Amino acid sequence: MKLKKFPPTILIEEDNFHNAWARMVRYILRNGRKIIFGDALEPKYARDTCALISLTGDAIRQIEDRELHPQFPFQHIDQYCDEYTRKYLSKYIEKPEKERFSYLYFQRLAMYETGREIVGQIDQIQLLCQQLNIQKMTGISSNRDQAITWQVLGDIGSRSPPCLQRIVIRYLGNDNVDVHLTWRSRDLYTAWQANIIAVIDMLNREVIHPNGCYIIKIIDYNDSLHIYDSDRSGAETVKLLPASPQKQK
To answer: Alpha carbon of 144 to those of 130, 140, 152: distances in Å?
Structure first.
């Protein structure tokens, strides 16, 4: 079998959150390009693709209910969601530097460093809430309201820059919104479901529900969605589900 010249690009449209994950796992194992990324000190071997995943219908409820596929390796979802709260952030920033993570998504979003002494930090989450209110009050949707995590001076050349890059929220009328998430890099097998649940939980609490709105569609775009070779044996056992596992109990 010839090695693919470039990673494939795939579109997945699903109304089942668990099967979106399972279908992507199967696709990457079968069609993903073998790739080595990272750096010379820590090369990472994986199968990779570029993916656009559209989630609607019951998938939104499953995400909001914090449902995980029973074969998803990481199951401590409540603890992970706590990292996207202001209470956790207030305690986190008091920790010594050596006890912090390389980055914290919520810190990048709610305490974005501008690099300017006069402006200082910007709460992008608060701004998203304000802008969604304007979209709703005027009835005019916007593709300009976004929050970003990338900080050029610190992230270019960094060994661990943030994977989540951008969040966009658009008002669609009738109190409905869609959410667009853009990711630089994404571990499909061990991170994808938890990432989406935590981000959406935070956006509902901080931005969407305070405006009396509800998510009807999530677009999840991944420049590099991959499964590490070390996770291959576990990924090969992943199965599609006939319905939400929690509903089957």
So the answer is: 13, 12, 20
Q: Is 133 helix (H, G, I), strand (E, B) or coil?
A: helix
Sign of the dihedral through C-alpha 114, 167, 193, 24:
negative
DSSP alpha helices (H): ranges in the chain? 17-31, 58-64, 77-82, 86-92, 105-110, 124-138, 152-155, 188-203, 232-235
- The angle, 0 to 180 degrees and rounded to 10, between the axes of the packed helices 17-31 and 188-203 is 150
126-161 residue pLDDT tens? 999 999 999 999 999 999 999 999 999 889 988 889
Output Rg (C-alpha) for the chain, integer angstroms: 19
Taking the model in full, what pTM does it have? 0.93
Q: Output the six-digit token pair for 170.
A: 């658009």
Give every CB contact of residue 85 below 8 A, 6+ residues apart in sequence: 106, 202, 205
Spatial neighbors of 52 by CB under 8 A, at least 6 apart, are 9, 10, 11, 12, 219, 220, 221, 222
Collapse the DSSP code of 84 into the 3-class scheme (helix H, G, I; strand E, B; otherwise coil) and give the result. Answer: coil
